[in-house]
Amino acid sequence: MSGSTTEQAGPHNVLPPATITPTIEQAQRASLSEITALLNEMRVLLRHVLHRKNQNVHLPGTTHPDGQSASPLKNVHVELLTKAPEEIACDEELLRKLCSSVEALTACAAPASLSSIYLTSAFLHDEMSPTASDAAKLAARRLRCWAIVTVLIAVTCFVATLMLLIHVDRGRRQIQQLTLLQNEYQQAIAAIDQTHDPNLLADCTKGLPGSRASGGQPWVSYQNLCDRLRKASQDIEIVRTGLGRWNTISYRLAYLMPIRWFGGPDAPSTGVSMAEWESSEFRASAVMEGFTGFVLPMMLGLLGAFTYVYRDLDRRVRNATLLPEDSMHGSLRMLLGTILAGLLGVLWTDGQPIKLEGVTLSLSALAFFVGYSVEVVFRLLDTVVIKAASALGK
Questions:
Q1: Which pTM does this prediction carry?
Q2: Which of 16-20, 51-55, 351-355, 390-394 is predicted least confidently?
Q3: CB–CB of 340/375 below 8 Å?
Q4: Can you tell me whether residue 350 is helix, strand or coil?
Q5: pLDDT band at 59 (very low <50, low <70, confident <90, very high)
Q6: Residue 368: CB atoms within 10 Å
Q7: Whether 172 contacts 242, CB under 8 Å
Q8: Cβ distance 313 to 146 under 8 Å?
Q9: Cα separation of 183 and 237, whole Å?
Q10: 25-51 core/surface letters (b: 16 or more CB in 10 A; e: else)
Q11: Are 154 and 331 in contact (CB under 8 A)?
Q12: Which has fewest Cβ within 10 Å: 38, 72, 271, 383?
């Protein structure tokens, strides 16, 4: 009898009675903390649904203007927010309603989640940010630092690109003006040659004497031809002076490009003066090709990538879908946009418009679009590679 009594009592006396009470209290505290957490989740999700979703979402018990009940939140029991966690813990029906309410709100808040909502609130420093966890606050602080740094880089890149575009456009206009003036100068010389006066060109260059009249031609005709020649020559000198200044500024900027580091000293050819070399349109055209063919596409591609990244960031902030890895994805997007847009200069360097799907684009416009939408470029590359591989396999 004693042995059987010992065997029956043994399993119930493994732990002393004094150790049973703390375990029950710990279970009760854990249950209350979980219910409190569920109530907080319900508040956060309900706030997001009401403030950030579309205006057709209404609280349970309200109706649409057309008289129909609001369906998205029909399973949400808002009255639970007024009850204490202890009251919900003692009532299984209330606990079931709380769980179903959180589940319904989670589905209605999608694609936002509780963690992304807390991260977005901490990022924006709104009224809900103090309730975010330390991890969410740290991630939000890193995202803010990344956003501020990229904004500064984007503004700097935008200003630099705008100034470079203005500089290149000014140089292009000066080259065009120089070409027109040279044609005007040649036409003036041709008109002088048609007078069949062998000394007229030299006299016009020196300055025609007021008493000169030869070949029976009226004085006014000679004066007009000389004035036309001198005017064209003076305009050419003015444009060449401006072009020389443009070349000086351009070559200072060109020293920032690594390709210039491998070249020799920039010196004029034999028989060409330094002034003529500095104001040469051929020298200006060579620098301009480097700017328009490679530097500007890279900068415009970076601006396009900046535009996409900040548009996506704005969408994520409005939808409360920020994630800690968004900064890394944004940085990679900017790098890809810069690389792909810079490679356009290798493919198109003739300055001619580019036709894609019936749409004519300049190299600069295409570079911006490539930076903005790198997915389109990758789909195009995948298609080209698959077709090339199929052709080689046959």
A1: 0.74
A2: 16-20
A3: no
A4: coil
A5: low
A6: 24
A7: no
A8: no
A9: 14
A10: eeeeeeeeeebeebbebbebbbbbbee
A11: no
A12: 271
